[in-house]
Design brief:
Elements: H1 7-10, H2 15-20, H3 26-40, E1 47-51, H4 57-64, E2 68-73, H5 76-82, E3 90-94, E4 106-111, H6 122-134, E5 136-147, H7 149-154, E6 159-164, E7 167-176, E8 179-188, E9 191-200, H8 204-214, E10 216-222, E11 237-244
Parallel strand pairs: 1-2, 1-4, 2-3, 4-5
Antiparallel strand pairs: 5-11, 6-7, 7-8, 8-9, 10-11
Helix pairs in contact: 3-4, 6-8
The structure holds S-adenosylmethionine.
């Protein structure tokens, strides 16, 4: 569970994460949700959970489309930001996906933009998928959007500089065991910073095993945000749809 040494407890809570990934914006989120909803056709009265919702870019849009949505995230800063958008059908809470996800039963749980594979303890991957299964109604579905680990591992860009809001981010990527490490160094606010993202290379077959152990059945998968078919060699994303048995 949460300790001070977990990279994802600190990095996502900083303003710098949001600056580096500012291109992952509302326009991208809205196009993705439009594509998913056109394909999956949720019912108007379905209850939706955006798990690891960040500042709520997908949750807010799903709510604007008329749905009742909860958004949970570990980052207190992000949830504080998202709470500005709350209304009677949209609420945000700080919650850890490895733990208790509350008493609501959802028709859909969304976990979007590589918000999985962070944990040091292998059990925590399964604990999180089990927590999802527990909060779905029978027949409810998990929609999980992850990187295509197979392709990412083969085509790693080892070094890159990105400039956003006058900050020069120096990025290094390398594989370490079954993880991809992304080291991020920059100067900002009169300080030198170093953060690390460490994401497990979970493949399609790994997710299928996790689902099977948690009582979820994979029913479809896609390879891009516009829902092209998944190809383990070529696709950038692995988007899994799994149904609670
Ligand atoms: C790459 S961001 C994606 C955020 C959001 N889904 C989006 O697309 O903007 C990953 C998110 O996962 C959250 N997160 C990491 N570990 C978590 C955990 N154990 N429980 C809940 N959220 C977690 C982070 O705080 C962060 O907001």
């Amino acid at each position: 569970m949460k300790t001070n040494t977990e990279w994802f407890s600190s990095w996502f809570d900083t303003p710098y994460y949001h600056i580096l990934y500012m291109h992952r914006d509302h326009t991208e989120a809205e196009a993705f949700i439009d594509a998913l909803f056109a394909e999956l056709k949720p019912h108007k009265n379905d209850l939706i959970l955006d798990l690891a919702c960040g500042r709520g870019r997908h949750a807010v849009y799903m709510n604007q489309k008329g749905y009742q949505v909860d958004g949970f995230d570990l980052s207190e800063e992000s949830i504080q930001f998202a709470k500005e958008f709350e209304n009677e059908n949209l609420r945000f809470e700080v919650r850890d996906m490895r733990g208790n996800l509350g008493s609501n039963k959802y028709n859909w749980v969304f976990n979007l933009f590589t918000s999985f594979g962070y944990f040091n303890e292998a059990d925590d991957d399964l604990n999180s998928i089990k927590a999802v299964a527990n909060c779905l109604v029978p027949g409810g579905k998990l929609v999980l959007d992850f990187m295509n680990a197979q392709k990412v591992a083969k085509r790693l860009v080892p070094e890159e500089i990105k400039i956003a809001e006058d900050i020069e981010f120096h990025i290094e990527r390398y594989a370490e065991g079954n993880h991809i490490i992304k080291e991020i160094r920059f100067n900002a606010d009169q300080q030198q910073w170093r953060f690390e993202e460490k994401v497990k290379l979970l493949k399609k077959s790994d997710f299928e095993t996790l689902c099977q152990k948690a009582g979820l059945k994979p029913v479809a998968c896609y390879g891009s945000l516009d829902l092209q078919p998944f190809d383990e060699e070529k696709s950038d994303r692995y988007i899994l749809i799994a149904e609670k048995l």
